[in-house]
Amino acid sequence: MKGSGDIDFAVIRENTEGLYCGIQGILSRGGEDEAGVDVRLITRKGAERIISYAFRLSMRRKGAPIDRKRRVTCVDKSNVLAGCRLFRSIYNDLARRFPRIEKDYAYVDAMCQWLIRRPEKYDVIVTTNLFGDILSEIGASLQGGLGLAPSANIGEKHGMFEPVHGSAPQYAGRNLANPAAAILSAKMMLEWLSEKSTDEQLDVAARLIERAVVQSLEKGEGLTHDLGGTTSTIQAGQAVVRNMRLLAQKED
């Protein structure tokens, strides 16, 4: 059985190209839909931007839990797809600039099962839009579910931070949703702001938020219905605030 200390990886997903960039259509004949067409676009600029970010992120992390090696895993389907061959080629070119980071490769179908079987091997995973969508959902299940999974959409100048999951209208107004993913997204935002402004206090605040969320879960105060508990959204949020205050007092 794997514990929380055995898993610590980040999925870095290109989010402006690939199959989600809107080059698509339906071919119809005689009033019936006959075929659907989706064209995937992979550009050098988009690939270089996301792969460079993945290597830089690995430099700031502690490495994979299994061996503490900094490692960037390129996930693609380069055995059959031209866009993936370009993506991997650019990955290889950029990897030369980061000799202290281990190169690693996986085809996306194999990666889906290795992420479940050996998640402790991975540090930073970089991939294209659709594949990143799939792998981040698997990663969310490993950490306890979508209610715990934060995400960041980071551009060259701006960033947007939100839970990985989409809307859940069936829980609207019922005080049931897990607030942890939204709170941890704010933690990621502070980390990003700290990096951009070189303000260490923002980084301190980010660590405080994460520790408070962890403590609330360990004490059972943040166990909402998706985690097998009965804590409400408001109660879970209040528990995080209480733990943040206690932690801040200890640091003072």
CATH superfamily of the largest domain: Isopropylmalate Dehydrogenase
**Main sheet: strands, sense, barrel:** 4 strands, parallel
Poorly predicted sequence stretches spanning 5 or more consecutive residues? none
Widest sheet, order of strands = 1-6-4-5
Here the CATH topology of the largest domain equals Isopropylmalate Dehydrogenase
Quaternary structure annotation: single chain
Overall pLDDT = 93
CATH C-level class of the largest domain is Alpha Beta
Inertia-based shape: globular
What features would you highlight for this structure?
two-stranded antiparallel ribbon; 252 residues; 4-stranded parallel sheet; Isopropylmalate Dehydrogenase; 2 domains; single chain; alpha/beta; 44% helix
What does this structure look like?
The protein is an alpha/beta fold and 252 residues long. The protein folds into two domains: 1-23 and 36-143, 3-Layer(aba) Sandwich (Isopropylmalate Dehydrogenase), CATH 3.40.718; 145-252, no CATH class. 44% of the residues lie in helices and 17% in strands. It has helices at residues 44-60, 82-95, 108-117, 129-142, 180-197, 200-218, 233-251; strands spanning 10-13, 24-29, 32-38, 71-76, 102-107, 124-127, 150-154, 159-163. Strands 1-6-4-5 form a four-stranded parallel sheet, sandwiched between helices. Helix 2 links the parallel strand 4 (71-76) and strand 5. The longest helix is centred in the last third of the chain and has 19 residues, at 200-218. The radius of gyration is 20 Å and the shape is globular. The model has no long low-confidence stretch (mean pLDDT 93).
